[in-house]
Specification:
By secondary structure, this protein is an alpha/beta fold. The protein has one domain: Rossmann fold, CATH 3.40.50. Helix content is about 35%, strand content about 20%. It is built from 8 helices and 7 strands, in the order αααβαβαβαβαβαββ. It has a 7-stranded mixed beta sheet with strand order 3-2-1-4-5-7-6, sandwiched between helices. Helix 4 links the parallel strand 1 and strand 2. The protein starts with 8 loop residues before the first helix and ends in a 15-residue tail after the last strand.
């Protein structure tokens, strides 16, 4: 095995650690060859990518319906599925070459995931996957734009969990008012995976509270 898992990976993946290691090898080989992962990332796939995403599972309710938008190389959707087989996950990705790769990997790992080609903001995607408990995203878009795409996919009380970096507080300061206008609550930061990844993963969370401001359901004519 060219990329052996760190000891902490066993705490996250349990008896699915071998599957997680197989996923890492896919990322390091065909993922790099087909442009889903940068070649310089191959030596830090476990901590920077796979574990960094998998620890977000601590924020996801049992048996939740999860929509992973802009899934790319399956991050964070596939690590979440490996860590939490109880979750019902769909990977939404617009680029055909990435979708093809995702389908191959999901089949090879034997995961019960759905891979959907499309964009979160498209009506067909919203109609098909609305009512989600959780929407996840990683390195997809600034917070306000991500909220505009993601909040319509969530049930009231559902949460957007966006894996972010050190700029998360600044994004919240800049975009919180727009997020609230879109029907979300005030964004907040969660830190996941202390003792497993260093530094812990930074997640911006937003709860869907209602309909976007300025929009109301049309009254039926009598």
């Amino acid at each position: 095995m060219e990329h052996p898992p760190p000891a902490s990976a066993g705490k996250v993946f349990g008896d699915r650690l071998d599957l997680a290691a197989r996923y890492v090898e896919h990322l390091a080989t065909s993922g790099v060859e087909r442009g889903l992962i940068g070649p310089r990332e191959a030596d830090r796939l476990w901590d920077r990518h796979v574990l960094n995403c998998a620890v977000v599972a601590d924020l996801v309710p049992d048996s939740a319906k999860v929509v992973d938008v802009g899934s790319g190389a399956g991050l964070p959707g596939i690590p979440l599925a490996l860590a939490r087989p109880d979750l019902r996950i769909v990977l939404v990705e617009p680029l055909a070459r990435r979708v093809e790769w995702l389908v191959e990997i999901v089949e090879d790992l034997g995961l019960s995931l759905t891979v959907e080609r499309g964009r979160a903001e498209e009506n067909v995607i919203r109609r098909r996957w609305e009512g989600a408990d959780v929407v996840t995203a990683r390195a997809v878009a600034p917070l306000a734009r991500l909220a505009a795409w993601s909040l319509p996919l969530l049930r009231t009380g559902g949460r957007l969990l966006a894996v972010k970096g050190a700029s998360a507080p600044e994004e919240i300061d800049r975009d919180a008012a727009e997020v609230r206008r879109l029907g979300g609550g005030t964004p907040w930061i969660e830190h996941c995976g202390a003792g497993i990844v260093d530094p812990p993963s930074t997640v911006v969370a937003v709860e869907r509270e209602g309909r976007p401001a300025g929009r109301s359901r049309k009254k039926r004519s009598t």
